[in-house]
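Need tokens for this chain, all 481 residues.
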Amino acid sequence: MNSLYSFFIGVRWEDIVDILLNSYILFRLYILFRETNVLRVLMGVTFLWFFQRVAVYMGLIVTSWAIQGITAVAALIIIVVFSNEIRSVLQARSLKSILWGKHRQNVNTPVEIIVESAYEMAQRRIGALMVFPGKDDLRADIQNGIIWNGLVSKEMIMSIFWHDNPVHDGAMVIQGNQITDVSVILPLSQRKDLPSYYGTRHRAALGVAESSDALVIVISEERGNVSVAKGQNMTVVNRKERLFQILQEHAGIIEKRSPAIRKERMEMGIAAVMSFLIITGVWFSFTRGLDTLITLQAPIEYMNRKPDMEITETSAHNVVLQLSGSAMLVKAVRPEQVQVRLDMKDASIGSNMFHITENNITLPPGITLTRTTPQNIQVTLDVPVIKEIPVQADWTGKLDSNLILEKVKLSPSKLQVIGGSLIINDISTIYTEKINLYTLKKSGTLTLSPVFNPPSLRVAPGIRDTITAEITIRERPQNTK
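Here are the structure tokens for all 481 residues:
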């Protein structure tokens, strides 16, 4: 339970944004490629990557290396083999259609006239190519068209595609109830899996359908049938009722049937959930599965100490922390982001033992504590008191044999010292810093500093913290015979 809590506490808001953003990108890629062969290959590569991560976790070095190589080759194959499909999906789509989709507005299209015209031309073996744009801009696809802007009628359509008409070989663009362009040249599909009997019209229909959301009706003069191109698919439509329904759905005149809508919504929901789970797994793999260890030394901060108490002694001033996390997060850790705090609220006079836990340590999000050294800190607290203590000179070395130390006068002779009551009551003398007798050759004055043991002692406020030593030295009298 604690591990799960620590996991969620370690998640940064940046991690949530990262997961949601990439989940949406993956979901949109699914939407764009779901009707292509690229999606199935990408799913295979995803499974390869998953097994490679499992192999890494289990320590299977050779297996992991082999799967990693296969995944890299597979990614290259996708780019080379399916370049046409990838280009057809992304080339002419607007940024808006790639990032999100919108409901198509209703367009008043004379569907019945178009259906009657299509099947009559098929019966007469008149070839035709009619393009019905969706929400994508087709200006990047159509070339050399002649602006027409005429109302849709059966006679108009039949006359444009009549064999003797100079514009009959090109495509017709129909938007709403108008024929906007005629004699339009469309891009040819570069797919290699198309049937051999597909001519230029069929390849042109697929070319514009693959690169946009347009619907294209193709009428074959050789076979006398009506086909519809949409996305990656080309379908022969033998019944007028079916073509009527397809055109109405494309134009937004009728909505899709409820079962189809429910099925599509369910598919989108499952795709969204799977995208989120996949990206979460990838994020976990990179941020938690590949942990890096570092060691930092952090000073101890004492919090909530009672005003009348002071720390006289501690067993350690710093704590060595071993931290783990992803390489990127660990490299970004700054020393000031790591803090060790001990709460002195319940501490009492004397020796107190504190056990350092994760609650005492502040770490950046995403970083985990693995070990602390030391784990226990002993802190001695005391109430400071003032005591006047005599001062005594501390000597070292030896005076020259021909000299005599006659007198030493210290000023002040006593010092007011502040220290913990448990310590200062046992101290009867304060010594000066050491005076080397060997260096003394004559009388003089020295300015000395007091030496406090323990170091927590200090001179009371307003008192001079130096000691003046007036030293009197005379020569030893010579023996005379």
